[in-house]
Amino acid sequence: MTASTPRIPLLIDGEFVQSATGHWQEVVNPATQQVLAQVPMATMDEVNAAVAAAKEAFKSWRKTPIGTRARIFLKYQQLIRENMPELAALLSAEQGKTLPDAEGDVFRGLEVVEHAAAIGNLQLGELANNVANGVDTYTLMQPLGVCAGITPFNFPAMIPLWMFPMAIATGNTFLLKPSEQDPMVTMRLVELALEAGIPKGVLNVVHGGKDVVNAICDHPDIQAVSFVGSTPVGTHVYNRASQAGKRVQCMMGAKNHAVVLPDANKEQTLNALAGAAFGAAGQRCMAASTLVLVGEARGWVAELVEKARTLKVGPGNAPGVDVGPVISCAARSRIEGLIASGVEQGARLVLDGRNPQVPGFENGNFIGPTIFAGVTTDMRIYQEEIFGPVLVILEAETLDEAIALVNANPNGNGTAVFTQSGAAARKFQEEIDVGQVGINVPIPVPVPLFSFTGSRASKLGDLGPYGKQVVLFYTQTKTVTARWFDDSTLGHGVNTTISLK
């Protein structure tokens, strides 16, 4: 680090300000260990100031016409498209993703921004006319107030864009706490949001660790909290924030199974599995990290290993790279420790990706594609989310056995089945107890017309991020029953019953 290392600002009441904190953390390029910036651990006074700005801005923002809100997000999606190369390069430098995958990260967030621009069709109430004599009942979907989002390192563009556009489009104001490991692309997206016309105080940003997270959970002026990240932190956020009376949605850890039936198209399936297991260096909560080979498909392991061997490991901005570095030295050590545990517990390490040779990037946090066969459900590599480029393979005799195996796992984020049988696919989608199901689709993250619907131990809270569900999450339904009197409805006397007549 040098004196010229940039310091990431906070955004409070429309102004980018330098934190007064004495605690700064380095943002490091995971391919080189180069320090890119310093990020502040915000003070409690700064968190309170950001919430106060959002609370004050809500007074006028909630009354802003819905068309005005929509036009801001029409402009915002245009700005994101125009700046896509810059955003992808920033994301790749601080997070490690390949440039094509970084663009995909931004694009999947952009889809939610486009959805936010359609808020006029999404935030509609209901009307029942003449439910009793001269009585109408209708609902209003009104914003909650100040909402907050806590986002993870693995999708520093997509997941912030899951949160603040829909919250703001529905009339709320927002406090965002990005991951302290890679906040630079998030802050550039925030700059573009202000350029698109989001008024001061409507969007605010603070940085920090556990203390800032707890302050968000506890603050009495924050009405709702959205979280994406690990299960331990998500469980803490859900419990603490919900006990403080807030609405909370937490998308958390996973162990996503891909079930392969012997009638699946082999080449297409192997390509899909390799991409879904090792893309983004396995750092996706929807990665296909666990493979269940059914029946004769159990003989496909050697061909899958050969497919994985063709993937190139290197820095994300280098041409032709398929697998970039993991986010930190600590993450690399944790993943390598889990690989060692798999060997110790008797799994067959059929492809060892530890210590790959990446000339010129000897200090990078690289792990190559790694595959274990002969895995059983009592092994750590099956029970824990590895969050790295490691695929574990289990076997099943039948589809019924595979479904039972998947359903016995506590997580319910995503799953997929590969088959050419419509009957088998229908049986799988009906009987599997997982929130998001792919049929010949390895990473079944829905587009924003639908909602992200992880389930069981992968999710706390009833409503998912983006899509129709998140409009319900960020609004309060108010039901109005109205009667307007005219001369024909007067003179009926006192009615002491509950009925409307």
UniProtKB/TrEMBL annotation:
GO MF: methylmalonate-semialdehyde dehydrogenase (acylating, NAD) activity
GO BP term (any one): thymine catabolic process
InterPro entries: Ald_DH/histidinol_DH, Ald_DH_C, Ald_DH_CS_CYS, Ald_DH_N, Aldehyde_DH_dom, MeMal-semiAld_DH
Keyword Nucleus: no
Keyword Oxidoreductase: yes
Protein EC: 1.2.1.27
Domain of life, per lineage: Bacteria
Ranges of residues in domain Aldehyde dehydrogenase: 17-480
Signal peptide: none
EC class of the enzyme, as a word: oxidoreductase
Alphabetic keyword roster: NAD, Oxidoreductase
Family: Belongs to the aldehyde dehydrogenase family.
Protein name: methylmalonate-semialdehyde dehydrogenase (CoA acylating)
